[in-house]
Write a structure and sequence with these properties.
By secondary structure, this protein is α+β, with helices and mostly antiparallel strands. The chain has one domain: 3-Layer(aba) Sandwich (Glutaredoxin), CATH 3.40.30. It has 3 helices and 4 strands. The chain has helices spanning about 10-15, 15-30, 70-85, and strands at about 1-5, 35-40, 50-55, 60-65. The chain has a 4-stranded mixed β-sheet with strand order 2-1-3-4. A hairpin with a 2-residue loop joins strand 3 (about 50-55) and strand 4 (about 60-65). The longest helix has 16 residues, at about 70-85. Bound molecules: FE2/S2 (inorganic) cluster (FES). FE2/S2 (inorganic) cluster binds near residues 7, 9, 10 and 53.
Length: about 80
């Protein structure tokens, strides 16, 4: 089980972080990953200049935007969750 946090602070919100939360949430539901991945919204992580701030446990996931969120989920987040399962 890993916890994925998506920043919904004002800077990340302006970049579309709510859409990222929705995209991740929809995939978790569609793929029945609720036992592997907990999704949380978080306040500012202090990395406002680096795209939408996302962490998987404590690992920062870089360059997340709502256009590549699905790809990042499958390429980076899901493997981390499966490695920890
Ligand atoms: S608002 Fe998201 S890291 Fe600052």
């Amino acid at each position: 089980m890993i916890t994925v946090s998506v920043c919904v602070g004002s800077s990340c919100h302006m970049k579309g972080s709510y859409q990222v939360v929705k995209i991740f949430g929809d995939i978790i539901k569609k793929e029945h990953l609720e036992d592997l991945i907990t999704l949380k919204a978080s306040f500012c992580m202090g990395r406002c200049m680096q795209g939408i701030s996302v962490t998987a446990d404590d690992k920062p996931i870089q360059n997340v935007g709502f256009t590549n969120a699905e790809q990042i989920f499958y390429n980076e987040i899901l493997p981390l969750a499966q490695a920890k399962a």
